[in-house]
Amino acid sequence: MSDRLEGRSGGKTKLPSRQAVGLLVAVCVLVVGATLSPPPALTVDGQRALAVFVAALVLWLTRPVPYVVSSVLSVALLFALGAVDSFSAAATGFTSTLVFFLLLLLLLGDATASVDLDQQVARRLLTADSTPRGTLHSVAGSLLALALVMPSAMARAVTFIPIVNRLGSAFEVEADVGFERGAFLVLGHVNPIASMALMTGGGMALVTSEIVGTTIRPITWVEWAVLMVPPTILLYALATLCAGLFASVDRKTTIGPDSEMQLETDGDETSPLTREQRLVGLVLIGAVVSWIVGSFVGVPTVLPAVAAVMVLSVPSVGVITSEDIAAVNWGIIFLIGAMLSILDVLDTTGAIEAVIDVLTRWVPFELLVHWQMIAVLVAIAVGIRVMFSTGSAAIVVALPIVLEFADAFGIDQLPLALTVLLVVGSTTILPFNTTAVLVSMDRGPLSHRDVASFGIVTMVLSAGVAALSWLVYWPLVT
Fold first, then answer.
1. Do 64 and 103 belong together in one domain?
2. Percentages (nearest 5) of helix, strand, coil residues in the chain
3. Is the pTM of this model over 0.90?
4. 173 and 35, same structural domain?
5. Transmembrane stretches, by residue range (predicted)?
6. How many domains does the chain have?
7. Is the Cα dihedral 405, 407, 410, 413 positive or negative?
8. What are the tens digits of pLDDT across the range 105-146?
9. Helix (DSSP H) and strand (DSSP E) numbers for the chain
10. Which residues of the chain have pLDDT under 70?
């Protein structure tokens, strides 16, 4: 979805109604927050910080301007309205390790795609089984393995779309329809789940680990893997099985001897790796090994990523260029920096505590048992998730609020944070909630009903896996 304004009439830019309303609402919120006297529970600074928070959410959801612009504006408003004493105090989120780490991982993911290493890995991992359902499972397994070297779920989806189309052509028409529908559900809904297994697996895991590290306690790369790999694999497997059942993928039709196919999208599937592909592969393996070793000796997780990007950027290698840096999704990076800045100001001004006090009056938490409190907090996170086009942005907003409630009511924050990640990362009700789903819907046979219905299925599965992990697995390893 483009950050640019679309639609021109008579040489003048015409804002879509949703964007115009969003801009108007944001302005009204800021005016009210800056002029009216605060309620007893809020300070003046807290009310103004809260007004900036709500206005920023409206701008990010309706997108009348690019994410970069609305994010910079939000930080500037914190200072301009007097919520903080200096601009540096308003921009503390941009000094977070998360902002730089996410930038580095995006560059490494782009490097993998730019040398076609993702295509090579996909061709070597993927083999066609004899039935549509078996082939669907092969695709899912290959996506899971590829997630170890390719953090972007979107890039994995784009890589496998032509391969899925090629595989589908080997089956009869009736079997092909079910296989394609199931495969595109896997590419869109199931594929992003794999990114949660490792701390460096994608934006959602990075955001969650940073918030856990600053709010609860530091967590290492290895500890994250121990906590998250088994639940993620279980959830991934269950979601894949359900995708086959949901799409009624045939498990009896076999591929005839005359239907032998080439799985590659271009070139020869047995072609050797190029020099650049070998170099990128070695650098990525070195980064993973460094993350593992660093977890035991105290090396910051960001340093191996810095070293990897540096190696791939030197002139003699030239895999990462200035064009690659310019093409990075700066919008989501600025959004995360701005959101972390706003949340820091909300905390220092006492606004978060005031919001929690109000919500506790509306929701009788004191009457709820432990598991009911957890269910309500996860439901709040899911409600926030539905409004955002990226899971990482939704977690940045939802997780600190949920953890504040957990601290107030004595709920163990670490398993709650991991639960929020599992459920939020597996919930896609609207196509724009996840870019991989949006692309799969555009390229495949999925309808809006398919997206919403299977999104509910994965959400329920994630809640079940999270509950099982909380009760059985996580107590054993913590």
1. no
2. 75, 0, 25
3. no
4. no
5. 20-37, 49-80, 87-108, 139-164, 184-207, 227-247, 279-297, 332-356, 368-386, 417-439, 451-473
6. 2
7. positive
8. 778 877 877 887 766 766 665 555 557 788 888 889 988 987
9. 22, 2
10. 1-16, 118-119, 121-130, 149-151, 155, 162, 166, 168-177, 250-271, 387, 389, 432
